Amino acid sequence: xxxxxDTKKIIIxxxxxxxxxxxxxxxxxxxxxxxxxxxxxxxxxxVFHALTGDQYVSGKNPITxxxxxxxxxxxxxxxxxxxxxxxxxxxxxxGCMGSYGPSTINESTxxxxxxxxxxxxxxxxxxxxxxxxxxxxxEKLFAVxxxxxxxxxxxxxxxxxxxxxxxxxxxxxxxxHSAQNxxxxxLGRQAIMAxxxxxxxxxxxxxxxxxxxxxxARMAAHITYLSEKGLQEKFGRKLQDRDSLRYGFEAxxxxxSYLRYQGSVFVDRFDANSYLYITRAMDYFDLSKQYKGxxxxxxxxxxxxxxxxxxxxxWLYPTSENREIVIALNSIGxxxxxxxxxxxxxxxxxxxxxPSFLNTLGDYINSTYKIxxxxxx
Amino acid sequence: xxxxxxxxxxxxxxxxxxxxxxCGNGDLMKFLQENKTKDIRGLEISKExxxxxxxxxxxxxxxxxxxxxxxxxxxxxxxVILSQTLQAFLNPELVINELLKVGKKVIVxxxxxxxxxxxxxxxxxxxxxxTENLPHEWYNTPNLHMCTIKDxxxxxxxxxxxxxxxxxxxxxRISEINKSNLNYKNLDSHLGIFLIES
Lengths: 377, 198
Description:
Chain A is of the alpha/beta class. Helices cover 34% and strands 16% of the residues of chain A. Chain A folds into two domains: 8-177 and 286-375, Alpha/Beta hydrolase fold, catalytic domain (Rossmann fold), CATH 3.40.50.1820; 182-279, Orthogonal Bundle (Rna Polymerase Sigma Factor, Chain: A), CATH 1.10.1740.
């Protein structure tokens, strides 16, 4: 969380009108790039991160010292090969990795903005990132790619900028956040706000951190990223470092210990207010409502090629919701491919080593790059 | 296979919009893309085959023709192709109706159950026919509704479906089917290819 991160950053001076009505300007966007932009500027891929992701897609994340969040997909000789493509990823506004967010210091007060930060939407998040593309002077991206909330940004990007990407790959996402997903997000927010150290969002003024609440939010969310079968196979009723039950509330079971660990490492790298703002942005996402209830209208102006991917065991963003995107695109004769990948790894499948996903994605991107360049669209 | 692809390709005008239903590994799509039109889509039920198609950069959707053709608007394709899969559907009539809605013209190819080699097996061996074109045993065949060239021809006339062109294939020999030679073609051809319109 803003621990003197030495990150690439630009300041956006153009005022950005947010959906909530407020306007922001002179705000930072932190980003990272991988590979090199070719002379025709035709090999750029913009990757959008999910709820708790950041700009460090590949290589070592300098904050966590762990591999970038999409290391299976992006990197040298990976499905999105950085020997070939110029990959860009920005931290979303509302985030806590250097882009404008609730933990940004307000220069006039010297304090974190906290919950004085305006409510943002996926639309605002995408519009802010478009400023980065303009700054990098890229007229047309080869592709926009992202999973989960990253996929929502892919859809919003093409709707907002119909001629700025040749290819769009929304993965494991939805065009409209479901009641179940809003419910889980609300659970996480309530856990944070119920922590007495939250202080209405101004915890940093008191040198506090609602880490218990944030950890519980993460634990609950983490369950939704897995599948019942995956959990059962990995953990079952196995006990943690003990031979028998202790008749208490310690972590007897491995699954408890695992979730507690996930919660505890998360609070070291993520800001509680960012969690509130970004989950809210996801809940507000309803692309078809933006187009008066007709999702197809969001894509009417675009010639962008689409490839939609879902996973069999993903119950958070199930195949049926991904299929709705495909149906909306087909009903206007758009160019859309779709596959549901077999995997037991739940929603997290898009982040993990799932060979049929990685192979199909990589082969598709490479053959499409070849076909599009040959045709010179 | 190659012969069938050539015949289908010859039935299609250049630079038209084509949908291949049950596109398998995308061989026909690739063939048409190289010879006829770039604007071609596929629908396929097998995940593995869909992944193969996508890996080649082909635009294919995983789905079932019996339920997923509905999402395409009326007449949104110049041609819809159904190559040797009609017999595998639970409800072939429904599928034909859907194809005729989505496509301005429809190309259907059917492995002919009336071919003499097929008939002889049942007649003399007394077992369900297994041929080069119909390689499955009765207990593992995906083919639920086998039909003959004559069956399909009669089906079209009963349902008032216009037959633009009907072609019989035997090995690599191509001939036209018409009312007067129907019985003979039905006996002597392994594949029937029909260009139809509602």
